[in-house]
Amino acid sequence: MNDSRFSLAGSLARGELKRWQENLLVLLLYTLLTMTLTYPALFFLQTKVTGGPEDNFHFLWELWYVAHALFDLHKSPFFDPDVFVPFGYSLIRNQDLSPGTVLLFSPLTHFFGEVFTYNFLVLGSFVLTAFGTYLLARELWANRAAAVLAGIIVGFCPYRFAHAEGHLSIVSTEWIPFFFLYLERLISKPRPKNAILVGVFFGLSAWSTWYYFFMVPIAATFYVAFRIHWRAAAKELRHLLKLGLISAGVALAFVLPFLIPYYLATHGAVVDYRGPGESQAFAAAVADYIIPPTTHFLWGHQVSRLWRNGVNGLWQSEWQLYLGAAALFLAAAGVFHRRRRVVVALIAMALGCLLFSFGPGIYFTHPPPLNSQTNDVALSPIPAPGRRLSHVRLISGSRNNPASSLSWSIRYLNTHTAGPRFTPQG
């Protein structure tokens, strides 16, 4: 009897060790892919930054000031009296404040500088987004090869390369796959550990950018609505509800210290109100999902010449949402998988996010601005769910519609996408 127990324990230990070894190899693969697809970023970590000079210099300043205030001035990092003198500048009321990057990694900035930290976070987001997606896909389908491919499709999609050139907060998608991983585990294996980690990874996603604070729950709502077996025993549903409350409590502990001041700012005329017209301008159009990126190795030049110019070329970093024929084909094949409840949940999440990504209304191509002095465009005559969200003051302080991209489940990698541009420091 004891021998059989020892034998079982040994088998489990060997299985766990093998899983860890596989995970390390996959992590190494994604690291090598990141180094290759962002070449030559690795060789200029402390001297050049990706993209720009555009919004990336704003994030460089945030990284520098927060570390400078904490470690050199020994004061609050959320207010700089030397900007907009004599009024000063409140970072916590800034929609682009990203505590998950500028605050969490301030020690790294202090010791290695803001340029290194910026590049480290951008490159690390590729590796961790891909790895988190791999773990999620492995959890859902128990297929190693499919999970590796899913990590590549999501971690290196055009959306991420577009934002890697200047939007540190938006490119920091690495915590979202881990949130859905533990959300799935919470549903399939309702345990306190999974509930706590759901809250932790949602909090980290929200710390990256307020856009994900709004977008992730929208996606999760569609997933949970179709993933949970609502006809299960009432006792099981009550247990799941209690664990969900634990997740919510942990998430609020992360978010409230930053959400409350931001909420007060949006109701105190500190953050300008942006109406539905601007949300419409930055929202997706149907064509964005089917037009290749301008960096595509085959079609990029033609896309730049024929499509991404004029009105449809104004905000390319927001509109590079190409899915790709290969990813759509694989997603269509996955529809026939035997785990029907998971398949239906993913389809519901993808379609729901797609509708929200159109903002206040659905356009096939992007409309022109109303005039040269504004970003606002005319609202589409075809309303979309985001029209209601654009009237919420907490959301309307943000430039983009918070659900400005399709569900992560069908993102596509163009493996020949060119690496980001680089700008010398200073």
User: Span from first to last CA?
Assistant: 70 Å
Characterize the overall form: globular
| Percent of residues in helices | 55-70%
Helices and strands, in order, run as HEHEEHHHHHHHHHHHHHHHHHE
Mean pLDDT: 83
Q: Stretches where pLDDT falls below 50 for ≥5 residues?
A: 401-426
What fraction of the residues are assigned to beta strands by DSSP? under 5%
Rg, alpha carbons: 22 Å
What's the number of extended β-strand segments? 4
DSSP summary: helix tally: 19
Quaternary state of this entry equals single chain
Strands across the major sheet, in which order?
Answer: 1-4
Query: What class do helices, strands and sheet pairing give?
Result: mainly alpha
- Major sheet attributes: 2 strands, antiparallel
What does this structure look like?
The model is unreliable at 401-426 (pLDDT under 50). The termini are far apart. The chain is built from 19 helices and four strands. It is mainly α. It is 59% helix and 2% strand. Helix 2 packs across helix 4 (106-112), helix 2 packs across helix 5 (114-141) and helix 5 (114-141) runs antiparallel to helix 6 (144-155). It has a domain at 24-173.
Topology (elements, then pairings):
Elements: H1 2-37, E1 48-50, H2 55-73, E2 79-80, E3 89-90, H3 99-103, H4 106-112, H5 114-141, H6 144-155, H7 158-163, H8 168-171, H9 175-188, H10 192-208, H11 210-227, H12 234-266, H13 276-282, H14 300-306, H15 316-319, H16 325-334, H17 340-357, H18 386-389, H19 393-396, E4 422-424
Antiparallel strand pairs: 1-4, 2-3
Helix pairs in contact: 1-5, 2-4, 2-5, 4-5, 5-6, 5-9, 9-10, 9-11, 10-11, 10-12, 11-17
